[in-house]
Specification:
The chain has about 260 residues and is of the alpha/beta class. It has one domain: 4-Layer Sandwich (Nitrilase/N-carbamoyl-D-aminoacid amidohydrolase), CATH 3.60.110.10. It is built from six helices and 14 strands.
Length: about 260
């Protein structure tokens, strides 16, 4: 069955959970009722700075903002993918929440930390798949795209999509587009990349301009639809027939597996 996906490209307020949560709420409220899945960027709820200030806004999985996401999913009968900084047992993680339409929560913790993330965050240690309106999907976050072994581990017949929240910098925007497309092609699956846009200009923190260019890549690696740098929402139909025809053409899942 075909599904409608909304890719929500946002400017964020770093260290301001209330403002970011309200932006998420407004974007979900504005979606048409036939949208099945909405995907938001990396650390959408909390923003990010690579110092101790992030600890003050990090969220536990039983916090009110996470409960609000669950309530939004139930009220709109929609699945959500939203990034945030999580705190658990005195460790801090770059987390991505998948909330299904019934409000059930699954969390992926980013396994490959970029640059100064390593100063304040702990890497996750598990790959995660979730059952979505698109079928079984693998979750990756931003820099995880660079690690082909993770993509290969998720290159299975039952994994029909990758969902990738990002906060990719504008200086390397071509790499973002290339890697989302490559990860679609190497697993013959849809790849949905929701990237942050705008700028982080927090006092006493490195200024970063984000790339935007959120996109949906087809199972043949071509760009299906894409945004530019502007804040906005991209709504696309994900066609099961495209996936089936490309898998029939390429045939990777009919080849004998090496041991």
């Amino acid at each position: 069955m075909d599904s409608a996906v909304a890719v929500c490209q946002l400017e964020l307020e770093d260290l301001d959970v209330d403002t970011n949560l309200e932006s998420v709420r407004e974007h979900i409220d504005d979606l048409d009722s036939d949208v099945d899945l909405a995907v938001f960027p990396e650390h959408t709820l909390t923003g990010f700075v690579a110092d101790g200030r992030i600890e003050a806004v990090a969220l536990t999985l039983d916090s009110d903002p996470i409960a609000d996401l669950q309530s939004l999913a139930r009220r709109h009968d929609i699945a959500l993918v939203v990034g945030f900084i999580e705190v658990a047992d005195d460790d801090f993680f770059n987390a991505t929440a998948y909330v299904d339409p019934a409000g059930e929560l699954t969390v992926y913790r980013k396994r490959h930390l970029w640059d100064r993330e390593k100063d304040v965050l702990t890497p996750g240690d598990e790959l995660v798949t979730v059952e979505t309106p698109l079928g079984t999907a693998g979750l990756l976050t931003c820099y995880d795209l660079n690690f082909v072994e993770d993509s290969a581990a998720l290159a299975r017949q039952d994994v029909t999509a990758l969902i990738v929240p990002g906060a990719w910098p504008d200086a390397h925007s071509d790499n973002w587009r290339l890697l989302v497309r490559a990860r679609a092609l190497d697993g013959v699956r849809w790849a949905i990349g929701a990237n942050r846009t705008g700028k982080r200009d927090t006092p006493d923190s490195r200024v970063v301009t984000y790339a935007g260019h959120s996109l949906v890549a087809r199972p043949d690696g071509a760009v299906h639809r894409e945004l530019g740098r502007q804040e906005g929402t991209l709504v696309v139909e994900v066609d099961d027939g495209v996936l089936e025809s490309q898998r029939d053409l390429v045939g990777v899942f009919s080849e004998p597996r090496s041991t």
